[in-house]
């Protein structure tokens, strides 16, 4: 396919040597991005249809389900989401195991993905001073990854990075907590 293009003002002339056709376009078309396409689709759906679609695929896809759980986590310090966070970490490792129960090098990033998403959420909570949620996430991540590393090839360092990130966040929480009761509670939770 060889095309010869000549531009005169706003007219574009294209000659296709295989087909011998000439076509004139008065204005070049703007490329639509993937984001614009998705926005258009979402905006054309009713709220109820969109909810049904998300629910259906979240039930079928573990990754979407975990992303939805992480996104919906509340910054309310009074809410106990620790079991939710533990479930996300556990299911991430469970879904990445092979038939022998091992997570090899190629599956390790997939296993660590939801863990890193949780830690990113913890960073957001830290910015919003939702320290209790940060603590709950870190205390779900550390034991979860410590248990998983026993049956995992962690030569890419994902587990180490997750533990370091969690400990750094816990340290920031300890520095930012003002009352001694909250600091004692954090200490007691870490010692458990």
Can you tell me about this structure?
It is globular and about 60 Å long. The termini are far apart. The model is unreliable at 1-20 (pLDDT under 50). The chain contains eight helices and three strands. The protein has helices at residues 34-44, 47-60, 62-72, 82-96, 108-127, 131-148, 158-176, 180-191, and strands spanning 3-8, 11-16, 21-25.
Task: Give a short synopsis of this structure.
The chain is mostly helical and 192 residues long.
**Major sheet summary line:** 3 strands, antiparallel
Mean pLDDT metric: 82
As residue ranges, the low-confidence spans are 1-20
Span from first to last CA?
69 Å
The total beta strand count reads: 3
The number of helical elements comes to 8
Map the helices and strands.
Elements: E1 3-8, E2 11-16, E3 21-25, H1 34-44, H2 47-60, H3 62-72, H4 82-96, H5 108-127, H6 131-148, H7 158-176, H8 180-191
Antiparallel strand pairs: 1-2, 2-3
Provide key terms for this protein.
mainly alpha, three-stranded antiparallel beta sheet, 8 helices, 62% helix
């Amino acid at each position: 396919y060889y095309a010869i293009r000549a531009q005169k003002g706003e007219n574009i002339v294209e000659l296709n040597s295989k087909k011998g056709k000439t076509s004139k376009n008065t204005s070049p078309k703007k490329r639509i991005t993937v984001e614009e396409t998705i926005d258009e689709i979402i905006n054309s759906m009713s709220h109820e249809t969109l909810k049904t679609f998300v629910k259906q695929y979240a039930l079928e896809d573990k990754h979407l389900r975990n992303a939805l759980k992480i996104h919906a986590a509340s910054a309310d310090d009074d809410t106990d989401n620790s079991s939710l966070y533990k479930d996300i970490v556990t299911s991430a490792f469970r879904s990445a195991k092979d038939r022998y129960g091992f997570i090899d090098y190629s599956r390790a990033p997939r296993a660590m993905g939801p863990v890193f998403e949780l830690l990113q959420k913890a960073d957001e909570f830290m910015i919003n001073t939702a320290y209790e949620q940060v603590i709950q996430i870190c205390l779900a991540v550390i034991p979860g990854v410590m248990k998983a590393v026993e049956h995992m090839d962690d030569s890419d360092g994902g587990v180490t990075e997750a533990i370091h990130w969690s400990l750094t966040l816990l340290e920031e929480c300890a520095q930012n907590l003002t009352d001694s009761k909250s600091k004692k509670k954090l200490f007691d939770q870490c010692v458990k």
